[in-house]
Design goal:
By secondary structure, this protein is an alpha+beta fold. The protein has two domains: 234 residues, Beta Polymerase, domain 2 (2-Layer Sandwich); 170 residues, Poly(a)-polymerase, middle domain (Orthogonal Bundle). Strands 1, 2, 3, 4, 5, 6, 7, 8, 9 and 10 form a ten-stranded mixed beta sheet that branches. Helix 1 crosses helix 6 and helix 6 packs across helix 8. The longest helix has 24 residues. The chain binds zinc ion. Belongs to the mab-21 family.
């Protein structure tokens, strides 16, 4: 199926069907995933992502879907390094890069070696995603044929796996299950512009959803998830060849998490994210977001804004009483499309085009944050990979040209991207890429922001020793 949002608008490199999580803990500001503390915390050894030694295996997944083929940007990193230095455009956010010592100058291995080491054990991921696809296909088929409230449900692929920037943990997946709804009324439930109450304007076409309205007439994510959870709990019993269980509900979290046994490998954990898709214009809070004109052009922006709107069941933690009736905008379909078509020229990173290091830079910063979070899980719990991804998207706009991200300039590009992120941390200001008034780095968390900023600076000035530490 198509994960890019609009039907038939498939990413240039094809659809994928299962997305492992590559996210850390923290209060998630905008991603589709439910971030959480890294599971490996406290474990004695972390499995090191193995180098790219095996070719992707493509097991036959049920439902005729192509299993996800992991592929990092690391192969491209071996391309000849033509050292062309692109100038920082005028008016760009000032970066402290001038004061940075280059990692190689500090005696550290080159960043591209770190990247090579980040390439996943491809076979592991491929096998795991085959299994996940099998289970999810079974569940979707059962839901669709039940004739109940969820019979219109579909699957949407989202997250780092589809964007080819997955860096570790092949055993964690997010699956967005999507319910198309003709029309919804959105009412902002706070000043972020990201969280909404949903109501039906008049009698909805989807009468089967009326049972999920709460006493105020708002669509209750909690009620929907509770029902979905019970159906899935029954249905996993009918899966014969794989051992699947539904994990116990966590207090305050409506998420449905499946656990799939995959011996002798570690269990696979799958978060099911209930998502609504409406074909209506994006709300006013997004009006000045997605400023991709300098990078991808006006036309592409217009096309993106014409795509469906997605809302995920997400508790707004700022609410005093958790009623389970808030929904958060999700743009993971657009993020995916931008990652997969990330060049200012159409041919960037195509076989006949210039190779850039955008994805490599994103992977490196994700890894840096992941590593730091392992070292300081409590102090950095507010941060998740969505912060890194958001800063990345802003960087793509600040440095819009493919030549700004020349593959041969990986160290330099990584440093300017990092410089921008540090700048955001120091100002406690990182606007959501699609909802500019929504600041992902609140001043309330200034102490955390300063702490992360210090840690990153420390890494930068010492050649990123943490890239080689094990936790
Ligand atoms: Zn590229």
């Amino acid at each position: 199926m198509d994960g890019a949002g609009g039907r038939g608008q498939q990413g240039r490199r094809g659809a994928r069907s299962a997305a492992p999580r590559g996210r850390g803990a923290g209060g998630s500001p905008g991603d589709t995933a439910t971030p959480r503390a890294p599971r490996r915390e406290g474990s004695t050894a972390r499995r090191r992502p193995s180098a790219a030694k095996s070719l992707p295996v493509r097991p036959a997944a049920s439902g005729g879907e192509e299993p996800p083929a992991p592929r990092g940007g690391t192969v491209a990193a071996r391309a000849p390094a033509a050292r062309r230095r692109a100038a920082v455009p005028d008016g760009a956010v000032a970066t402290p890069e001038a004061v940075f010592r280059s990692p190689s100058a500090a005696g550290a291995p080159r960043l591209r070696e770190v990247l090579l080491g980040l390439t996943l054990g491809r076979q592991d991921v491929s096998e795991a995603s085959g299994l996940v696809n099998e289970v999810v296909s079974h569940l979707i088929q059962a839901l669709r044929s039940s004739g109940g409230s969820f019979s219109s449900i579909e699957r949407l692929g989202a997250g780092s796996y589809y964007e080819h920037v997955k860096i570790s943990e092949p055993n964690e997946f997010d699956i967005m299950l999507v319910m198309p709804i003709a029309r919804l009324q959105l009412d902002e439930c706070d000043d972020t512009g990201a969280y909404y109450y949903l109501t039906f304007k008049r009698n909805p076409k989807e009468r089967y959803l009326l049972r999920f309205l709460d006493e105020e007439g708002k669509l209750s994510a909690f009620k929907m998830l509770q029902t979905l959870r019970e159906i899935i709990k029954q249905e996993v019993k009918n899966i014969k060849n794989v051992e699947v269980t539904v994990q116990r509900k966590k207090a305050g979290s409506p998420a449905i998490t499946l656990q799939i046994k995959n011996p002798p490998a570690a269990d696979i954990s799958v978060d099911i994210i209930l998502t609504l898709e409406v074909q209506q214009s994006w709300p006013p809070s997004t009006q000045d977001g997605l400023k991709i004109e300098p990078w991808l052009g006006r036309k592409v922006r217009g096309e993106f804004r014409n795509r469906s709107l997605y809302l995920v069941a997400k508790q707004n933690k700022k609410e005093k009483v958790l009623r389970g009736n808030t929904w958060r905008l999700s743009f993971s379909h657009i993020e995916k499309a931008m990652m997969n078509n990330h060049g200012s020229s159409k041919t960037c990173c195509e076989s006949d085009g210039l190779k850039c290091c955008r994805k490599s830079c994103l992977k490196l910063l994700k890894y840096l944050l992941e590593q730091l979070k392992m070292k300081y899980p409590k102090k950095l719990e507010k941060f998740c990979s969505y912060h890194v991804k958001t800063a990345f998207l802003h960087s793509c706009v600040i440095w819009p040209n493919d030549t700004d991200w020349h593959l041969g300039d990986l160290d330099h590009c990584f440093q300017k991207y990092l410089g921008y992120f540090l700048d955001c941390l120091q100002k406690s200001q990182l606007p959501h890429f699609f909802i500019p008034k929504y600041n992902l780095l609140s001043l309330e968390d200034k102490a955390s922001n300063d702490f992360l900023s210090r840690q990153i600076n420390n890494q930068l000035n010492n050649g990123f020793p943490i890239f080689h530490e094990r936790f």
